[in-house]
Design goal:
single chain, 419 residues, alpha+beta, five-stranded antiparallel sheet, 7 helices, 11 strands
Length: 419
């Protein structure tokens, strides 16, 4: 050991002759755990094993002479390549590696394996949230030496995930690696090795806690069309569902990074839900206005009667309200008993009109005609109110089918078409 380090200078690049340049450093990594992917701050915290291999020609010896195949030396006694994580989000990566000793082999090969916690920046793409896949890069390279002095290459074709501990939110899909060479406007190469940590989000949590409540809120808003107008709760139900959807949207906004580049898939879905709930509340108000319009005595226009009562009403299977006058006659006829009805006529001789004043009789007749006219007017008003209420029911049924179909299409396009 003393002889090996007697003339060794750790601050100089180990070069014995011109063929030693560039010194090749092979870099590998093993991801063992994903602690957190901080999406609002776009920082990935992971635990990894760093694996560096290079050859130091000044640290070789005759193995048979000393009967020693390898040595574990302190890191501050030998030359270290200044490998830097370009995507580092905290302090210098190498500052936490001083506690781990490299192993030097007799042929001059230096192997440095060290576990560490890496905090790196990660560009978050929230377009498909919560069914998204994130690609976080770990770019390693030399900060001081160019490719003419230090040649950095990958140790294997992919990172090691055999020791990965399962994360509750993310699945580690793959760790592909790629070697890049940049020139930065000159002829000097600057190589680096980039590991792509590909993570797939587990969407069960968001499906159960965000998407499923949104679907229930939408269905609840659709039931407002089936709620009787007499209850007086149609508009208040829509407003309550609208406020609930806004609260869910606020919860989603806290889970994704603040960005104007793209809109998350879940935010699109909730936004569509809020839009539909707003529209359903507006058309509910119009439907209520139609329901109570009969109080003004204005009859339903003829074209609306023909369109809604004779065609749309039949298609929507509002059976009790779609009978024609002939159907009503047949229904009444079938409902009457088959027993003969005896009509009793009054006996005029029983009425003593000899001493009656003719003026009183005329007054009674006018009163009877007035009562009959009033009853006819009441019947007409009731018929008008019934027609407007029936029209409102048909409109509610149309809106229920329309909004349900639109919501189903939006759900299929957004939630199932994320790929």
């Amino acid at each position: 050991m003393v002889k090996l380090f007697s003339s060794y200078e750790k601050n100089l690049v180990p070069i014995c002759d011109e063929t030693d340049l560039p010194i090749t450093v092979r870099i590998g990594i093993a991801i063992t755990h994903i602690f957190e992917l901080d999406e609002p701050n776009q920082v990935l915290t992971s635990k990894a094993w760093l694996r560096w291999l290079w050859k130091d020609c000044k640290l070789s010896w005759n193995r048979t002479e000393y009967n020693v195949g390898h040595l574990s030396v302190e890191p501050d006694k030998i030359w270290f390549p200044d490998i830097t994580l370009y995507d580092n989000a905290e302090h210098d990566l190498t500052s936490r590696l001083g506690d781990y000793h490299p192993v030097v082999y007799s042929d001059g090969t230096v192997a440095f394996y060290a576990p560490t916690i890496i905090k790196s920046t990660c560009k978050i793409d929230v377009h498909a949230f919560p069914f998204d896949r994130q690609n976080c890069s770990l770019k390693f390279g030399s900060w001081r030496y160019s490719g003419l002095t230090l040649d950095i290459t990958n140790k294997s074709m992919a990172g090691d995930s055999s020791m990965y501990i399962t994360n509750g939110e993310w699945n580690l899909v793959d760790i592909p690696v790629k070697r890049n060479v940049f020139y930065y406007g000159s002829t000097t190469p600057w190589p680096d090795v980039t590991f792509q940590v590909i993570l797939q989000r587990k969407s069960l949590y968001y499906t159960f806690n965000l998407i499923f409540p949104c679907i229930l809120m939408t269905l609840l808003a659709m039931t407002g069309f089936a709620l009787p107008p007499e209850s007086g709760e149609k508009v208040s139900l829509g407003i309550t569902v609208l406020l609930s959807a806004c609260v869910v949207l606020l919860l989603v906004s806290e889970s994704v990074p603040t960005t104007s580049e793209t809109i998350p898939l879940l935010s699109k879905y909730i936004g569509s839900t809020i839009t539909l709930v707003c529209m359903s509340t507006v058309v509910t108000v119009l439907s209520l206005g139609c329901h109570h319009r009969g109080a003004y005595g204005r009859p339903v226009p003829g074209w609306m009667k023909k369109l809604f009562f004779n065609y749309i009403g039949r298609i929507l299977c509002i059976v009790q309200d779609c009978r024609t006058p002939d159907d009503v006659k047949e229904f009444v006829k079938d409902s009457l008993p088959n027993t003969p009805v005896k009509i009793v006529q009054p006996n005029i001789t029983d009425v003593n009109i000899k001493n009656e004043n003719p003026h009183i009789l005329h007054a009674l007749c006018r009163l009877l005609y007035r009562i009959e006219g009033h009853l006819d007017d009441e019947k007409k008003s009731d018929d008008i109110r019934s027609e407007w209420q029936l029209l409102a029911r048909i409109i509610d049924r149309i809106l229920l089918i329309l909004f349900s179909s639109v919501m189903l299409i939006i759900s299929l396009l957004i939630l199932l078409g994320q790929s």
